[in-house]
Fold:
Amino acid sequence: MSNTLAPLKGQANMPNYDEARANFSWKEVEKDFSWHKTGKVNMAYETIDRHAETWRKNKVALYYSDDDRDEKYTFQDMKFLSNQFGNVLRNIGIEKGERVFLFMPRSPELYISLIGTLKIGAIVGPLFEAFMEQAVRDRLENSDASVLITTSDLLPRVPYKELPHLKHIILADEGDAPDVDKDTTFHRYELEMSKASSDLDIEWVDREDGMILHYTSGSTGKPKGILHVHNAMLQQYQTAKWILDLKEDDIYWCTADPGWVTGTSYGIFGPWLNGTSNLIRGGRFSPENWYGTIEKYKVTVWLSAPTAFRKLMAIGDDATKDFDLNSLRHVLSVGEPLNAEVIHWGTKVYNLRIHDHWWMTETGGIIIANYPSMPMKPGSMGKPFPGIHAAILDNEGNELPPGQMGKLSVKSGWPSMLRNVWKNEERFNKYFPVKGFFESGDLASKDEDGYFWFEGRDDDVIQTSGERVGPFEVESKLVEHPSVAEAAVIGKPDPVRGELIKAFVALKDGYTESEELQEELRLFVKKGLAAHAAPREIEIRDFLPKTRSGKIMRRVLKAWDLDLPTGDLSTMEE
Ligand code: WT7
Structure:
């Protein structure tokens, strides 16, 4: 193999890929959990309480830091606080299976609430704090959430009066609360916590019971509620052990927000299932902040996204010289393709390989990865996790030979696989067009050595700065504006963001193109949906290409925009 990077020095938790693959069994992994014998399962118990019952009770579970706060919580602290929060929910009558949503900035309270919710067997739904009203409404409406934990700052974006199922709102800060509403009761986090006992009988659930709902965007329709179950812990535990390579003395930092699946599977579950000290950093990204955080906490294992690495690369290597980054021993990247260029830069400035790996909201855990012990081919996502079969399929479901691009698919039945799309069985079934295989929607190829290479999305979903944006959501918002007749949104390759959002807009009669109007449209999406969903480029056009059935042909716009061949135009209207 030419152009490979040698494995890390030192002993990796997974010594040899081929051996691990040959001997792997999920049944063996089960033996690391007490439910193997007791039959009693709960993710919250396995992440927190079981460590609080051992010598790890005084080990730091959570280091939390932002511009105002700097705190630490041991596993024992987390056990008692999450018990209290579980009791807060029980005291207001919340039961197993109900949906409890979190809409708040990163803070210890967010993590305590999330674990506490799981302890009573309720299903947790974390939302990005950047969401605006429409995005919040869609998710709370679809999930019929009965409780929301939020802050007074974010409350104006919660249309609670129009959400009949939302019976309780818990405010985690001290800001103003509205007067009593006839259908919604407001509570204060601090006050309720102070009244709640720190003793709690955990709700033991079935491995297949619902645990977490992550909403994700597709190319059409409203966001989908991807349901994961407690059984996901098997995969999150073992992948964190072998891919994140977590060891007892590690200080682990995952930069992702829990509104995104990376921020839960590998920002909460993976590390805590392994009893690892987990650093959470609130606030905004800045290179000084980030390198300063690594230096201050002596971070050893760091997981981030290609956009972050590209930004750090863009500010120049000198920035690293002002900080001591020697504590780092393992660096990982996920969410979008990691350019080989960035990996080579990483080996220069960090003296470490950046380990790319692939998965998605629907897979609940890592599927393909570069392992610390494995030679790396920069630009490749790596190889499937032991115990998981990933394949490149053609349209009929046949496995393609090495070198050919096809649909990246996963043999169904891995432990953290999605179990449903909330209230949408039909959409769930669409993930399995070929019997026995989950279809990811990504295109990829596999080489002679078994390494997988990402080629692109099969549909129109946009991946911008590590966030997945459905063109449909942005288009829907744009056409709400009085000036907009039609809108089509595409992802355009961008060196820093991966893709940037570009909107094509046809105006209604009586409106004319202007800089101000473009700016207004941008703001309209920013305020109505989310800042990261606002189009960076807007092009006004007389008409948009459509199929005869009226579907806007995004791929045609994309081809025109990038000067590429348009492909089959047979379905396009005159
Ligand atoms: C989509 C999933 C990673 C979990 C959180 C994001 C893209 C993800 C890679 C990678 C190229 C990647 C895919 C995938 N993606 N990782 N290593 N290389 N593309 O989950 O929001 O559900 O997005 O992100 O297109 O389908 P998500």
In short: The CA atoms of residues 191 and 509 lie 55 Å apart. Residues 75-91 form the longest helix (17 residues). The mean pLDDT is 92.
